DNA sequence: GTGTTTATCGTCAAGCAGACGACTATGATC
DNA sequence: GATCATAGTCGTCTGCTTGACGATAAACAC
């Protein structure tokens, strides 16, 4: 059977981004306000069409840079901290997920430290970091009492999947360091785990665990006191990507 | 900005299947022989175009049924064994992955017990179960001394990703039972782990572990002697999907 | 100095994992 | 039928990890 362009239905392919960070002890995601129908005025995940000559990961990295200014981490330079962590999450292709046409969206998950301020095409009012519980609270009310509309399209599902991926992945990988600046303390790393998992961890056992896991942390020699209290040692992420033994999420 | 069909490039969207089973102590994958260019005559993963009105998981289930006769497991009936396990794996969209046109493939992973014989459109010579090491052995020689051509397209990468997913997922989930018939013995389950991981496990510690993990196995009361030796108790898969504590893959 | 905060080290008991001995129940072989 | 081989099942022991928590250290605020 020769190649017949009419033999398959045409699809639009997009990438959507779940960009997570930890701000003020809460796991937050980047949301942008839609400027056009459908779902005009509603919050959504950042994303856009994949271009004709682009790989999926390239498209995701481009969108991430456009929305946040973050460069994606180059997997070829693992030891070096040259940007945010970016990985493919899952693909969503319900025929009715976009009322305009048949769109298949390849969602990606990005983890970033707190630093950057949102910038959606230069217009800051159309992009914000929002706590994920707030974004996922369907039909509830935000911290300011305003009613919260659910995210556009199936983005609530995508965000929930991304959060779940992040929660489970910091158990057995060193990914939690992607939420930290280049140099960080054990306490800062612990607060990342606490924010992502939504639990309190024992500082003493946590310290013993992470410093005892080979390849997880390497001391830089410096110390800091930016948290108040006794100065803490500074660390960088070690070469290990898989943690053995893994971090254990406390019982549900 | 109104909807403009020319604003995005059209893609073809396919599903490809990594169907794994355990045969004769080896992890095997379903391969089909391509009957048309490109890669005519080469082995490939089964798959096909997503139809215009189909969800991705529906398309994957349809292809699985067409190629193997297996029904996909309905997630709404978790305790019941009504088919093979099927889950989305990852999406592959390199612009050059198909020389004919821009194709994005949403790969799925299926795990099945040994029973079914391949049937690719009724022609058995164009479908076979092949050990995954053989399919992934680039440019080597098969067990029969024949030279082995690498899989078509990027299917070697997809298969490798699927195998890795299966290897890690049987650690912390009860998915290994998807490789077993409805009723099975602890020894049969152990041989699944040994085949998928490619290691030897201590029968005594394995027995203690799986029978001690709550929700993993439920005894049916029957026994069997089909393996020779002392009769073994028969079990069904329990309700648990996540294993706590997980099975531990021995050191590399 | 005193109190507060955070970091870090130590101790102890419970539980789990790996190594491996021992026993059991079947079929195969002589 | 005795013996052997095979596979399944139960125990034991030892070392390591974990979770709970006491104790000490080093900063800052007053």
Automatic annotation (TrEMBL), chains A, B:
Record's protein name: DNA hydrolase
Nudix hydrolase domain mapped to chain residues: 10-154
Keywords assigned by UniProt, alphabetized: Hydrolase
Alphabetized GO MF terms: hydrolase activity
Stated family: Belongs to the Nudix hydrolase family.
A Pfam family the protein falls into: WHD_NrtR
Organism of origin: Streptomyces caeruleatus
Gene3D superfamilies attached to this UniProt entry: Nucleoside Triphosphate Pyrophosphohydrolase (3.90.79.10), Winged helix-like DNA-binding domain superfamily/Winged helix DNA-binding domain (1.10.10.10)
Entries under InterPro entries matching the protein: Nudix_hydrolase, NUDIX_hydrolase-like_dom_sf, NUDIX_hydrolase_CS, NUDIX_hydrolase_dom, WH-like_DNA-bd_sf, WH_DNA-bd_sf, WHD_NrtR
């Amino acid at each position: 059977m020769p190649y017949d362009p009419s033999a398959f239905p045409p699809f639009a392919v997009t990438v959507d981004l779940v960009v997570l960070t930890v701000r003020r002890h809460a796991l937050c995601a980047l949301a942008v306000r839609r400027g056009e129908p459908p779902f005009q005025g509603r919050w959504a995940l950042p994303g856009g069409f994949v271009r004709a000559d682009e790989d999926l990961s390239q498209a995701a990295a481009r969108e991430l840079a456009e929305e946040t200014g973050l460069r994606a981490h180059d997997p070829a330079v693992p030891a070096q901290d040259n940007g945010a962590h970016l990985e493919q999450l899952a693909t969503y292709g319900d025929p009715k997920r976009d009322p305009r046409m048949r769109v298949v969206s390849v969602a990606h998950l990005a983890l970033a430290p707190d630093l950057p301020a949102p910038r959606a095409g230069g217009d800051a009012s159309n992009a914000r970091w929002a706590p994920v519980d707030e974004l996922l609270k369907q039909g509830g009310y935000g911290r300011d009492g305003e009613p919260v509309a659910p995210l556009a399209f199936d983005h609530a599902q995508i965000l929930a999947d991304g959060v779940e991926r992040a929660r489970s992945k910091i158990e057995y990988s060193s990914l939690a360091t992607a939420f930290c600046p280049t140099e960080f303390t054990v306490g800062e790393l612990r607060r990342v785990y606490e924010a992502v998992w939504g639990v309190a961890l024992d500082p003493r056992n946590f310290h013993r665990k992470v410093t005892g896991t080979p390849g997880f942390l390497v001391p830089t020699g410096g110390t800091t006191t930016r948290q108040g209290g006794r100065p803490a040692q500074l660390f960088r992420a070690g070469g290990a990507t898989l943690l053995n033994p893994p971090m254990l999420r406390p019982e549900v």
